[in-house]
Design goal:
single chain, alpha/beta, Spore Coat Polysaccharide Biosynthesis Protein SpsA, Chain A, five-stranded mixed β-sheet, four-stranded mixed β-sheet, globular
């Protein structure tokens, strides 16, 4: 791949420290930092302890830069994101939030998919993330087939639109207790491994997003407000650009990344789920995937 590859990681103090710890542990165990031209930690009002951890990582990798905005809020986030977009306007950028949990082989699969689909209409790539809008969109039929009664008790069109806390909790229970990911992956083959963004229906969540200069040039700079002065989120601006330019969006269904939850469910899930159990589950999954591909076992 000829283009620069850049990763920007948005981190804040909103979520529990354990969540931050799991994110970093999985990031470092699954990711070859040398593949990136630059890695930015965009830190919005994080704790001194979090910042110290990030600087300890930075000292080991010359391509890492830590950017800190001490005041919380969208304005500060947009300033940091716009800095990266301006500096790397033509790069392949992977944007990740610090409540996503990476799995083995994620980077290789994403970059290969980009090489396969890059072009003038390319918009974005995502892995399958069970708890985000497109993840639920993709898994809907599987849930309805395998867990119809209980699924229909928690899902409605309104619940899909807002990804209600009850639905997020239910999905995590299926991941941890019913081997949801392994069972779903068993249904995926080379003929059905891609899912395409529907410009009239889909909602692209940006807790994980791979994009290039096409989308960068369409959204830069992120605006702090709309014409009426209302806050306009970066996720809304991305979806507006995707629809306006009819860019192609693709989810790679055999590449799994987890998102802990949306803010509306954080208190419920942080109290109901054991972070250590989540970490053990994902690390066991990663070990089994690495063991199944011995020729690539040494690669993150």
């Amino acid at each position: 791949m000829q283009r620069d590859i850049v990763m920007m990681i948005l981190t804040s103090s909103i979520k529990h420290y354990e969540n931050f710890h799991i994110f970093l542990r999985l990031l470092m165990s699954t990711t070859d930092f040398q593949r990136f031209t630059k890695i930015y930690f965009l830190c919005n009002a994080i704790s001194e302890e979090q910042l110290a951890i990030l600087y300890s990582i930075k000292r080991k990798h010359s391509n890492i830069q830590v950017i800190l905005e001490e005041d919380p809020g969208y304005v500060q986030v947009f300033k940091m994101e716009n800095f990266v977009l301006k500096k790397h306007a033509d790069a392949v950028i992977i944007k990740i939030d610090d409540d996503t949990y990476l799995t083995w082989g994620w980077l290789e699969k994403m970059l290969q998919a980009y090489e396969d689909h890059a072009g003038p209409t390319f918009g974005f790539l995502q892995p399958l993330i069970p708890i985000n809008h497109m993840g639920v969109e993709i898994l809907w039929d599987y849930f309805d087939e395998h867990y119809r009664k209980e699924f229909r008790a928690v899902i409605t069109e309104e619940a899909l639109k807002h990804i209600f806390p009850a639905l997020q909790h239910w999905i995590w229970r299926k991941i941890l207790d019913n081997s949801l990911v392994d069972n779903y992956l068993a249904t995926i083959n080379k003929n059905n491994r891609l899912h395409y963004y529907d410009h009239d229906y889909s909602m692209c969540s940006i807790n994980f997003l791979l994009f290039d200069g096409n989308l960068t040039n369409a959204v830069y700079p992120f605006r702090f407000n709309d014409d009426q002065g209302n806050i306009l989120g970066d996720e809304n601006q991305v979806n507006i650009a995707l629809k306006r330019h009819r860019f192609e969006g693709i989810v790679v269904k055999d590449c799994i990344v987890h998102h802990f939850c949306y803010n509306n469910a954080y208190l419920r899930l942080a109290g109901a789920l054991c972070f250590n159990n989540i970490l053990k589950h994902i690390e066991a999954f990663n070990a089994s995937r690495a063991a199944s591909c011995p020729q690539r076992r040494k690669m993150p």
